[in-house]
Amino acid sequence: MSYVTVKDIAKVAGVSTNTVSRALNGKPDVNQETKQKVIEVAHKLGYVSNRSALSLKRQKSYIVGVVTEDNANPFWAEVLKGVEATAKNYGYHIIIANTSRNYETEAEGIKMLIERRVDGLLISPVQEKYDDILNLKRYEIPFAIMGRHVEGLDVPMVYDDGIRGGSIATEHLIKQGCKKIAFIGAQPYNTASSERCQGYKKALQKNGITVEDDLIKTGGIEIGGGYKSVMDLAANHTEFDGIFVYNDLMALGVIKALKELKIRIPEDVKVIGYDDISYASFICPSLTTMRMKKFEIGEIAFKMLFDSNEQNKDEVVLHSDLIIRESA
Amino acid sequence: MSYVTVKDIAKVAGVSTNTVSRALNGKPDVNQETKQKVIEVAHKLGYVSNRSALSLKRQKSYIVGVVTEDNANPFWAEVLKGVEATAKNYGYHIIIANTSRNYETEAEGIKMLIERRVDGLLISPVQEKYDDILNLKRYEIPFAIMGRHVEGLDVPMVYDDGIRGGSIATEHLIKQGCKKIAFIGAQPYNTASSERCQGYKKALQKNGITVEDDLIKTGGIEIGGGYKSVMDLAANHTEFDGIFVYNDLMALGVIKALKELKIRIPEDVKVIGYDDISYASFICPSLTTMRMKKFEIGEIAFKMLFDSNEQNKDEVVLHSDLIIRESA
DNA sequence: ATCGGTATCGATACCGGTATCGATTAGGAG
DNA sequence: CTCCTAATCGATACCGGTATCGATACCGAT
Fold first, then answer.
1. Measured between alpha carbons, how far is B115 from B110 in angstroms, rounded to an integer?
2. Same domain, B123 and B167
3. Is B95 inside any structural domain?
4. How far is B84 from chain A (nearest CA, A)?
């Protein structure tokens, strides 16, 4: 059986398609009895409205596109929950486009979302380039940047204060007695990573510890990236007694590497992560980290698109909290 | 600036909308020069095609709807990666509808996806009821069930052999010397859970161990469910030296509870999970588990919809492998 | 000169809804 | 009885594409 249309309902109910539309949408100018009958017929025929036709006519899709690096990543999964829950409250659905931290994939994803005529766009940019995002200004589509702070882009953003957080994390290691603290970060163009690194340097300087370039590693993100950076440090015989890792996922790799190197945590080396993903308390040793307001990032980002209270803010900065566990 | 249409391009290029369409879609019956000019104009004006209009005209959306309990759940996140990667190869996009293990949410999600006129539907059902899924047969939309085995539904399915896997997991505990093995499962209507429980019973019987109802717990899923079940066992002073947990996420809760009860793993109690989520090797102690073919479930499920090689199979059964780590 | 074939292109209908506007009817006021 | 108003409803245009079909022009063959 094919899909039922308003025309089918109209024929069976003996009214015009217009009346069907009015009846089904609770509009005025319909007699109560007619309305009942139409609804009855629609139900009996198994009518389901066609959103494509609606989108076309209303010039509104009630879809918001979300562009993130990977919706399976536990950090972004939480952010997405915030977006999704808020979207639902506002009568929107979301389509997710993963970038896999690749600029071309990001550009493709954004194009796809524009083709679907999303009503808004939430982007956590790859940051290799911003051409695709700047290009968005050609259209009248509202969009916002999530989880990253980008200077000079003149686009609404919601992000975590990485300088503050990085500074707090590093100070915690210093208070725990660490003297030679390494920073293991993401790609250099990743502003979240570079801000946390700035915070790290700030904390070191404030405490009279010199910043050593050998102790700063940037590279691939995710578990493998953290693993590799520790192995690099070890291969260069760089000494360290503390590590501040860009995020918890990389911290997993860091911990794995340290274990393989028979370095005890936290006795020999203390480790602190960032994000507080849900598995941070279950890993061994449990991970000290900065708890980011993940759900809120998604929630606020969505509201920046459509909620008049948040709409005209061009920047929302969130603060993360230190969560002390076993690793530091 | 509003969106550019074929009409705008036609006006500027001095041709008809039809010619624009032909030129942009690589169709024949267009002069090479005309084609070039149209493409040029389209590019200059920043044309992006409108998928809603296309969907309406072509009666095809190139979207597949995916209904799962929670895309943030590490197990389903992997399955979704399989779906997404395969969909991309076939030129499809996906829209995700989370059910939160709630029948009403599932029914709503399915309705939304039908409204968007998805070309296919992949569902991991809540299993409280099947009315919404059976209702799908009214439409001509292809769909398949992922990760669950449901008898008597006459719908294509791809799932893991839970009886086999549950049996292997339980036998592993028995070989490790466990005599009193508990099973901690999900809700009773969850067929994946009940099949693993069947496998558990089968293995016990085969090894001359009597099945004790006190040792079988069913209840809430996810971390909290596992935690609560262990605490229930402890409150009833039920003795056990091994636990087979429905999935790894619940195993996290189990391990948390055991730690709080000062029960050592694996010395006092051995624990085995199911799924092999990516964090299983990082938790403490690292989790022995059954590795499910998560990506493949998503991949095969998608192919069942459209790929002529897989299309006419009504069931694909996958086998999981025992991964031995510290917890058992 | 006429004809047939081919290449190129445009007018128009249609997909499934909704909005605009006009038509019809009934009822009450004058 | 006429006029006005409100309630109800239908005909039609439109959203942005594409498919169908017909029109036109140009070529070489007869």
1. 9
2. no
3. yes
4. 10
Give the Cα separation of A302 and A296 in Å (integer).
10
| Residue B262 Cβ < 7 Å to strand C | no
CB contact under 8 A, A93 and B112: yes
B208 and B278 co-located in one domain: yes
Asked if residue B21 keeps its beta carbon closer than 7 A to nucleic acid strand D, the reply is yes
CB-based contact A139 B1, cutoff 8 Å: yes
Number of H helices, E strands in chain B: 13, 12
Q: B91: left (phi > 0), else alpha (psi -120 to 50), else beta?
A: left
> For residue B28, is it within any domain?
yes
Digit-coded pLDDT (tens) for B256-271: 999 999 999 999 999 9
Q: Is A327 part of any domain?
A: no
- Does B309 score more than 80 pLDDT? no
| Whether residue A172 sits in one domain with residue A245 | yes
pLDDT at A238 over 80: yes
Find and list the nucleotides of strand D having atoms within 7 Å of a protein beta carbon.
Answer: 7-12, 14-20
pLDDT at B99: 95
In the predicted structure, residue B311 carries a pLDDT above the cut 80: no
Q: What does the pLDDT average to over A94-108?
A: 95
CB-side neighbour CA atoms (13 Å) of A41: 24
Domain count, chain A: 3
Compare CB distances from A283 to B56, B61, B282 and report the shortest one's residue.
B282
Instruction: Report the first-to-last Cα separation within chain B, whole angstroms.
Output: 63
Instruction: Say whether both B192 and B306 belong to one domain.
Output: no
B21: CB within 7 A of chain C nucleic strand: no
Average pLDDT across chain A, whole number:
93
Q: Is residue B54 part of a domain?
A: no
Q: How would residue B83 be classed by pLDDT, with cut points 50, 70 and 90?
A: very high
A14 touches strand D (CB under 7 A): yes
Nucleotides of C under 7 A from a protein CB: 7-12, 14-20
The model's confidence at residue A311, banded by pLDDT at 50, 70 and 90, is low
CA–CA distance, A2 with B155 (Å, rounded to integer): 19
User: Does the predicted model carry a pTM greater than 0.85?
Assistant: yes
pLDDT band, very low/low/confident/very high, at B175 (cuts 50, 70, 90): very high
| pLDDT score of A71 more than 70 | yes
Q: How far apart are CA A94 and CA A80, in angstroms?
A: 9
Nearest of B274, B257, B262 to residue B172 by alpha carbon: B274
How many Cβ atoms from other residues are within 10 Å of residue A138's Cβ? 14
A19-58: per-residue pLDDT in tens?
A: 999 999 988 888 888 899 999 999 999 999 999 999 999 9
Q: Which domain holds residue B31?
A: 6-49
User: Could you tell me if B276 and B155 lie in one domain?
Assistant: no
Whether residues B186 and B254 fall in one domain: yes
Average pLDDT of the segment spanning A122-138: 93
Residue of A nearest to B61 (CA): A52
Query: What CATH number does residue A31 fall under?
Result: 1.10.260.40
CATH number of the CATH domain containing B149: 3.40.50.2300
Residue with tokens 């997710």: A96
B212 plus B287 within the same structural domain:
yes
CB-nearest partner of A78 from B72, B117, B279: B72
Give yes or no for a contact between B148 and B177, defined as CB atoms under 8 angstroms apart.
no
Residues A180 and A270 in one domain: yes
State, as a whole number of angstroms, the distance between the CA of B7 and the C1' of D10.
30
Rounded CA–C1' distance between B31 and C1, in angstroms? 30
